[in-house]
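Appendix B. Extra example for self-study. Work through it before the problem class; the solution is given directly after the inputs so you can check yourself.
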Amino acid sequence: METPSELNGLRSSIDNLDAALVHILAERFRCTRQVGKLKARLQLPAADPAREERQIERLRSLAKAASLDPDFAEKFLAFIIKEVIRHHDFTRQANVDV
Amino acid sequence: METPSELNGLRSSIDNLDAALVHILAERFRCTRQVGKLKARLQLPAADPAREERQIERLRSLAKAASLDPDFAEKFLAFIIKEVIRHHDFTRQANVDV
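Solution. Structure tokens for the complete assembly:
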């Protein structure tokens, strides 16, 4: 199927945004890995529910300002957190910061 | 609990990266909404499995280059696609581009 140039243009934007998402996610995992190591070294408690609560509220607020469904933003954070925990399980570290 | 400055620094990075993710996701949904409208207007077929296949392969490759688990990148794309389809359901548009 021949695609019109307007569609190709939008798809190029989507591809660029996806590349940005992948690289930012890679950097975010670098940070959470460092947090895991730091917490293990300092013998800090693994979870910080107050921090997580603040993260959720902040992301919902940012999403609203950007006209993104805040429920989606919250689901998105939960999705990433699940992966962070899975990574920590892999590395057998109990000290999770999400 | 008092948090050490090194931990606070990492958390600030995570917060900045999360804000970037939210804004890029908002822009991505703007693009897929436009694609939906364009496809409806031009009466183009709703799905394009070949395009989706290329997106998956490209994201996996980008993930590998960024030391991100390619399986996670693929799951991440599937997660977003699910939301795009849900959005399209909301707007009663059948023409989905993910």
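Self-check: Chain B touches chain A through 51 residues (CB under 8 Å). If your reasoning did not lead you there, revisit section 3.
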